[in-house]
Structures are given as structure tokens and as C-alpha cells.
Amino acid sequence: MTEAVRLDAVSKVFGRGQGSVAALREVTVGIPRGTFTAVMGPSGSGKSTFLHCAAGLDVPSSGSVRLGDTALAGMDENALTKLRRERVGFVFQAFNLVSALTVTENITLPLMLAGARVDRAWLDEILHRVGLAGRAGHRPAQLSGGQQQRVALARALVTRPEVVFGDEPTGALDTMTARDVLTLLREVVSALGQTVVMVTHDPVAASYADTVLFLADGRIVDAMTGPSADMVAERMTRLGAWN
Amino acid sequence: MMSFAWKTLRHRKAGFAGAFVALLCAAALVTACGMLLETGLRGSVAPERYAGTPVIVAGDQYARMTKKSGKEKAKILSERRWISASLAEEIGRIPGVTKVVTEVTFPYAGFTAHGWESAALTPFTLAQGRAPSAADEVVVDARHSGRAIPGYRVVGVTAQALPNQDTIFFSTDTARRLAGHAGQVTAIGVFPRVDVAVPGAVTYTGDERGAVEFPDAENARIRLISLGGALGGTSLLVAILVVVGTFALSMQQRRSEIALIRAVGATPRQARHLIGREALLISMIAGLIGSGSGILLGFWLRAVFVDLGAVPDNLRLVLSPFPSIVAALTTLVAAWVAARISVRRATTIRPVEALGETAMPTARLPWVRLVAGLLVTAGAVTLTIVLSSLSTEAASSPVTMLTALLWTTAVALLGPLIARVVTALPLRGPGVAGYLARKNLRAETGRFASLITPLTLVTAMTCTILFMQTTVEHAAQGERNAGVRADYVLGPGTSAGAVREIPGVRAATEVLHTSVRINLGRYSAQAVTPEGLAQTMDLKVMVGSLDGFGNTSAAISRTGGRSPQRRHRRRTAAGARRRHPRHGTGRRDLRPWPRLRRSDPAPPPRRGPR
Do A109 and B270 touch (CB under 8 A)? Predict the structure, then answer.
């Protein structure tokens, strides 16, 4: 099975000298194509840094990151930006949409920035899939929180990226709405074969994934396949997440 | 990208309103000032009195000097330069000249007075009566038919009247005598149109004749050039700084949005372009509306200046598309520059900030900015000290503006530091609102800092511009009052001779305010009659004395005395060059008397009207 993302001995140190903090320590992991991976860990475990480094948003202090067969090392900000907009999709916790643009314009924003043509059929299919076909002309302010996250997911999918990264994509949603969005993410993986990597602290969210990686103190300490919410919660308790 | 920028603009109308209004006002002001400037540069006054004469020979109204670099500089004189009457004969001998008409011009009781010899210049013809021949006979223009001239008999009325001057004709001999320039004339008219070149005078044709006829218009033109330039430049500068401020503020408010578009694939360049396009779009709209309404503003400004007497009514505005085009373009450039300055922030925003909660920006002052800020502050302090020792208007005006500008720049550079210091002060507003306001300011010093700059700038500039004149006027009034010993100061149009004959009057001093050029430098000057001077004026003589002050002496003010050119040859308005022995140095630097209007001084005392 080919890997969509590969991290080799990736370390990330913030600050210098005595005040320095190692957020990631020698992390080595491969994310297989077409899988749904959840990254879990207590606060300060380095899961956000893991996502930033894997997605080319931040440059690791040492080690190498490969996206498909492209090594990210040595790329400047412009090259990384182009790589992100062509081959990576993002769904953030909040502030996902540009309030001045409509749903369609928000979704096609990466294409516009890349100067690429919009594939109408693909756009319609995404809109339909995320259940926003009738709201293409709305502005973010006219949508609910769950709908906004679905627009963000559509935007992440529009470039047919190799990986979609989610940083607590359901963190700001209520339980019912979160379940809809997670179901949608699951469908994207199962039906479209999309690779998804999601950082979360919610065991229920993690239970939608194929694999859960557990981070603690900057290291991957455990992995679980076919997780259930209870198993994940139990493992997190052992990691000292909820004392 | 353009449509994206347009959508952002439409969505964030309120956020851009400040920048829009600033740019709109700047465009309007620059257009209006441009119109004044262009009028100053290219405007001309059509001749009225000389309308019927193809060629006018008159004095050179400029003091000229060739610099060492070979460049010739010319500065306008404030008094009319008279020419020798004997030039008329010389011109008459030039081949092709059929007729030569001499003219003297002088103010008389609100009229522009001439000898009947020059009636042919317009030409004036008699509608009734006859030409003046005896010493006490006058002819008035058509507008003043039936008006009595005290001390004179009106023997005729002309068929014409000039739109911008009230004309009165004396007999040729009387006019020459009243004008008080023996052997000299103001102008010589030449018929028909031939090339005339005589030493000591300049030939004027076409609209140039208007400049001779209305020397005040020439002064007004030069005033318009400096005024238009200064006002336009200042408003543009203020606009740039306000726009920089508002853009910087909007950058802070839009941090997460910019981080987002960076994360989803906008390169730093694209993020910069987005902001740049927004600025261009705003300035395009503001520039269009502003330069359009600026034309109306220009007309209004001119009307105000005409009412104030700063611009003569017959100096028409020059209308051309240039001021509007220049205003629209400068607004565009100003907005672009402002966007460029504030956009640096946009590119330093890391896309990581869009993930999760937006990290609060830490308002740390880069050390380069800190050092620059401290240097500018030091400069501002120095200039303030220098300014407090300056005592002439000419020196202090530019320094005042510069000082204000330096202080504002210092505030702009050190804004974040000032914001932190101010918020650290134990200030407390009343109630919960006050508590929240204080906490909010303290938490977001960066936003507060970008607010301080435009506010400081606008306040500082407005106060400087508004209060500079009044402060100088106040100081001048103080010196004036301290310098006047006379019990009464009489306005223009009073006859000194008549005043002296009033029983009980011990001394009366006639004063004429004018200016002289020394090596092209302009010095304000006042001419006084020396008799009884000590009783009417206190000039606070520091060196020398005013004993024997007369026709060949001059007193120089303390600041004038410091000038390196103090004993150089003096170029007076009348064109005479002579060495003035120094006759004491006065302390009064600002105008010690109300300025008399040169166009309307007292008539010569010998035959003044009662």
C-alpha cells in the first residue's frame, strides 16, 4: 500500500537554549492512501505540531517529510504554498471561510488562487455530497456552524488533494452536528478513497477513523486500528489525558 | 484577484470607510489646490486699461540675479517699478512707431488716477464735457458720472468704464505732479505692433499687458502657486498617513482571514496583491468622486480668496483636466503606498495561525523601529528648542510644520510603546464599561497603537495649520501694541497733512508697508516720515540712533541685522540701487503696524481732500 504522507525522524523544537521546548521528538510514521487517520493526545502532546509539519504549514527542525513522492525539505514559502493549494486540503476548527465570499466562491478559492479552471461537474458533485446544493449562493453568515464546516470540507476536496488535514474539525460543533460532519468525512474516505488525517481530542470523533495514533510528549506512543469510542477513551485515560 | 478584492470591499464597507473618506478628501483638495496652482502658473489677467494698445513698455516687475551656476533667478517686486519718461522719445524714433503714449498711474481716493495723456491707451473717449486742462479739473469714468471729487471740478465724463478699476483723469501736468515720480512714468504705450527694445524697460504684448496693469495679480499668482502646493501637499500627506493607519488597523482585524487564505493556498505575494487591489479599488472610486467634487471646491476656494482680497477678481481660474488627472493619480499612488506599508503585516502572518484559535500577536517593537523612533524623537526635541528661539515668521513657519511632522512620525514609530505606557497608567473609566474598555485596551495594545498614529497626525496637523497663523498674529499684535506710542492709528485713505493741521496733534507719522529684495531675499520694510517718529513709534533701538534719520538712511531689525547681507546693496522696489548707511537696529521683527493697503495709500498731503 502506498503512503500519502511519510514522516521520518521528524523533530520540532521551539525556542533556543534552556527555554527550548521539543514539540515533536523523532516521529516516524506513514499514512497509507485512502485511509482515515485520527491523531489523539493530551494537550501539549504535539498533535497540532504533527499536523503542521505533515501538511507543510511548518518546517521541522530535523527529519524529513514526504507528501506522496515529493520531499518537502528545502522548499521555500512560495513552493510550500503551491504544494498546499494543489495537493493538500484543510478543515480548521473555526475561521474556515472568507465572510465576503459565497459558498461556491469559498469552495473554489484554492482554484482561483492557483489560477486553475473550475470543474463544474466535480463542484456540483461535492456540493451535492456535502448537502449544500441549494445553498451555493449563500454567504457564511447565513449558514449554521455545521453547514460552514461542510463548506470547508467541500473546499478541501475541490482540488482533489492527496490528503485532507483536519484540525479539530468538530471542535466547535454540538454533538449532533459533529456526528453529521464526521459521517461525511467517513464517507469521503470510503466512497471517494480520499486520505484524511484529523487531529482531535474527542474519542467519539476518533472512533470514526480507521487508525488512531496516540501522541504523548512529542512521541507516537501507540496506534489502534478499528477503534471504538470506549477503547480510545480508555487508552487516553491511561495516557494521563483526563486526570 | 480583482473580483475577490471587490467582494471584500463590498463586504467590509465600514472598515474601509475611513480610508475612503480620507482619500476622497485628499483627491478633492489636491484637485482644488491643483486648480489654484495651475492658475498661479498659467493664469493671466486680460488687460483692461491697456486693451487698445498693442505694445506696452514698462518697468521690469522682477528683481533678477544670475547665480554662480549661471541660472537666472527672478523674484517679483511688491511695488511698481517706474521708468524714465525720456524713454518715450527714444521709442518714438524707432522705425515703424507711429504713436507713443505715456502714462502715470497712482491711487487717488479709491480711484486709479492717470493724466489725460494716457486716455488713448484704452481708449477712453469723452461722452460729455471736455478734457481736463486746468490744475483743478478732472474727468471721471462712465460709472461715476455725477460723482463729486472734493477739491476738484469734474469737467467731463468718459463713455467707458473698466470692469475692475474706477478711473479718474487729471490734467497731464497735475497727474505727473500728484504721482510724485518726477521725470518718470508707469508705462509707455506704443502703436502699432512693432518690436520695441529699450534698455531699462521691458516690452509687454498680449496678456502680458494685464500683468503690468494689475501688479497685484502677479503677486496673487505667486501666492496661489505656493499656497496650492503647500495645501495640496499637506492634505496628501495627511491622507497617506490616515490610510496607512486605517489599513494597518484593518490588517489586525483581518489577521485570521489572511492567515486562512494563506493556509488554503495564497502565496505571500497573492496576499499582498489582495490588499493592494483593495487599496487600488478604493482609491479609484475615491479619486473619481473626489477629483470631480474637487473642481467645485476649487471654484469655492477661489471665491473665498477673492472675498478675502487675496486674489483679484479678474484673475480667472485656469480650467484643464490636469488637476483632476493628477489628483486621481496621486490618490491612487498614495493608497498603493499606504497599502504597501501596511501589507508587510499580511505577509508576516503565518498560515498556522488559521489553525485552531488565532494566536494573539505579540506587540514587540522591532529594534530598528525603536532606534528610528528615538532618533526622530531626539530630532523633534532639538527642533522644538530651535523653534522657541526663532523670532521671524519666515523662519518659523516651515520649522513649525517640520517639527509637527517629526513629532507625529515619532509617535507613529513608537506607537506600540506609547500604547503600552498609556495602558499601564492607572486610568479608570467609570463603571463596568470603563473597566472593560481599560482591560480591552491593555490586551490589545497593537490595535490601540495603530489607532494612535492617524489620530495624532490629524490632530497635530490640524492644530498646527489652524493655530500657527493665530499664534503669529497674536505675537505680532503684542509687538505692535508695544511698539506703538501713538494714541491713534488711522487707516488707509487718511491725509496726514490734514491730520497734522488738527489742533493738538503733536506728531503724525506716515507709514507705508512694503518689502525690499536684498539679493532676492524678501524683507518686509516700512517707510516712515522721520519727523516726530520718536513720539509715535518705539522701535527699541539697540545699536546706533535714529537722530538724523532721513532720505539716505535705514534702520534694520535685529533679525535683519543678523543677516549676512545687511550692508549689501539694496534693491528697492523703485529700482534704485544705493548703499544705505546703517542707522540703528530695531528689535521689532514682526509687523509693528497694521498693514496699509498699497493700492490705496493716503493721497499726497499737499493737495489732499479734506
Answer: no
